[in-house]
Amino acid sequence: MMKKMMVLLLASILMVGTLAGCQKDSKTENTTQKENENEKGNKTSKETEKLEGHLVSKDPVELSIHLHLGNRISFKDSWEVFKKAEELTNVKLKGTASDSISDSAQAFNTMLASGDLSDILTYSLEDLSKYGMEGALIPLNDLIEEHAPNFNKYLQENPDVRKTITAADGNIYSIAFVPDGEAAAGYFMRTDWLEKLNLEVPKTVDDYYNVLKAFKERDPNGNNKADEIPFIDRGKGEITIRLVTLFGGHTSFYLDGDTVKYGPSEEAYKIGMENISKWYAEGLIDPEAFTRGSKARNILLGDNVGGATHDWFGSTSTFNDTLADKIQGFKFEPIAPPADINGKVWESTIRNNVPNKIKGAWGISVSNPHPVETIKYFDFWWSEEGRRLMNFGIEGEQYDLVDGKPIFKESLLNNDEPVISLLEQIGAQIQIGFHQDFAYEEQWMNPVAKQGARMYIDGKYCEKAFPSLVFTNEEQDLLNEKLTAIDTLQKEVTQKWILNAEDVNTGWDKYIKAMNNLGLKEVLEVYQNAYDRYMAQ
Fold first, then answer.
1. Which H/E stretch holds residue 63?
2. Of 6, 131, 146, 526, which one has the fewest beta carbons inside 10 Å?
3. Taking the model in full, what pTM does it have?
4. Which ranges of 249-336 would DSSP assign to H, the alpha helix?
5. Whole-number Å distance between alpha carbons of 485 and 438
6. Of the candidates 496, 501, 504, which has an alpha carbon nearest to the alpha carbon of residue 237?
7. 61-69 and 120-123 strand pairing
8. On the CB side of 236, how many CA atoms lie within 13 Å of its CA?
9. b/e map 64-94, b = 16+ CB within 10 Å
10. Rounded to whole angstroms, how far apart are CA atoms 452 and 454?
11. CA-CA distance, 529 to 411, in Å (whole number)?
């Protein structure tokens, strides 16, 4: 269906003669673009030098933007942050995504199928690279170098980001949202239960097992019932599966030197499954781990029966506040990762520089009559003032500058609504192409969350992220077919192992054979080739 849509779209573009120029290589494309700039009303670099501050154009410029993200956020013309940006740049954005559509993919596909492209397209880095190579967006390489000094400087200082946003054909088709703050999630434990049972914080995987066993058997909640559930999973099994890291395993693709490997097909994954299924059989893991869902923390911690988990620092730490009056002495605190069976202390859940699956990048469509003004507008958000505006909102309204640092007002911090929700309502922290500032999050994080994040950062526990790779359209087609089937098999079989519906040892060879039949070798070749291209840039 999507291919049909793109065929119709590209056919319509060809009819007006636009696509031909876009199918040339980056250098030819941008040479043609420069020759036509005066005809399109773009300013020359000489004229630009006369502009003051962040002005992009002497005359007002209006650009249409398709922005529909996360199945819940569509561009609002009333957003105060973008109105402030308009004052500073002289560029006004006009949203085109319908509020009546609640599905972001549907909204994007509907726009593509119409053949009426907005000037600015906002979607995932992966998809914008794909459609860029098909001719729907213009290459940005030369535009960035000539007209985006702030972003160009950032790329020079962060070559990994440049590699990640570069498509398989060598062109950059979009500027991506770059998150900030390495540590994202970690291990949490009822430290008040540790104190009650006179136990130490577990340092190794064996220690961790023994603590969970003590939580199960020694009645730490003191109600004379064997109702404790030592390990909580609110991810329908995903958090439980992540325990394979305690046995040296990986849950997805990872690097062994410069070789790409698929964790769920490795021997360490098997060892992890053997142990996790044992823990489950002994009642150390929630028996409803695969079914309880997102409310698991609320239910099990609220009932004073949950003992430990692995989850996000920000949200998990808040239970220390919400349950303080309900459960006497309640302390659910982050602990360092227990050393795995090989003695390695590490954390696999981190924030990638530019996750290509995140719906957070924007590019310039081939129908945009103002590419130079648009790239300059993009670049504004990478200036000090633009970055602060998108991260913190408007000075004097959401924050004040104190010793040169933006500090949120008490009215924002002490509000019934979450800070992130309040910021999104004015158009801040929207995942367009900008660089997030972790300082925005630190200000409203629970002190316990700050402690955890700082522990993991200072302890250097976070494993280096597997890079977000960009694939050719042919490679992506192969992955869509084969990797989807492999991932489905992995999830189904892993669940059976953990629930002891199938024995790991007797089922392992059959599982590996099925993966190979589904094309694991071809998938690894595609990933290796994409990684090699990434490293060669």
1. strand 61-69
2. 146
3. 0.80
4. 267-281, 296-302, 313-317, 319-322
5. 37
6. 496
7. parallel
8. 5
9. bbbbbbeeebbbbeebbbbebbbebbbbbbe
10. 5
11. 51
